[in-house]
Amino acid sequence: MDDAGTYHCRPGTIMASSDDLTVIFEGRGGHGSAPHLTHDPVPAAAEFVLALHTMVARRFNIFDPVVITAGHLEAGTARNVIPEDATVEATLRAFSPEAREKLFSLIPEVAHGVARAHGVTANIRLEPLYPTTVNHPDNVETVRRSVTELFGAEPWADMPVPMGAAEDFSLVLQKVPGAFIIVPATKPGTDPADAQGNHSAHAYFDDSVLVPGAKLLADLAVRELH
Prior knowledge:
alpha+beta; 5 helices
């Protein structure tokens, strides 16, 4: 992203979908000295994480990508005890409804296959959250005209590719034509590439973007009313 005060937009998909995945592998615990008497869920969980990345690389078109990040793995209470279960939690991202649906159908196949190979079971919870954020081309053009007429051509930026983040405004755009606009608010003198992200406790937002941003929204409202 550029410095504060630029307006980024694109027709079509601008942000990814976001969904939650939890898989609990259940086996039979025991002592670490006798794994043959157990059904260890930990290797199954570990293999499942790797299998997810292989699935992404081999089952999806690189021009319609998906992203899976397993951000939370949990198992056991002691180094010499094989636990009863192991949990994998992940976030799923896709850039088209078709890729998203394919994720939903393939993940159970992979999880159950890995579980069977290790003699354990897989309990799967897929929680749909937000679909892809899809801008309507006519509304994007309206935003572009508004930005360039109010502030000149320099603040406008055509986004070449979508962002991997997700947005609940996607649900609005499924019902009402519109456009989602991204407005950076990086602290003056800070390289946007090094700035802390929105979810960081150290994020800093430049308030100077608020007044022109409000002016843009008001202008868009007036254009819509006309």
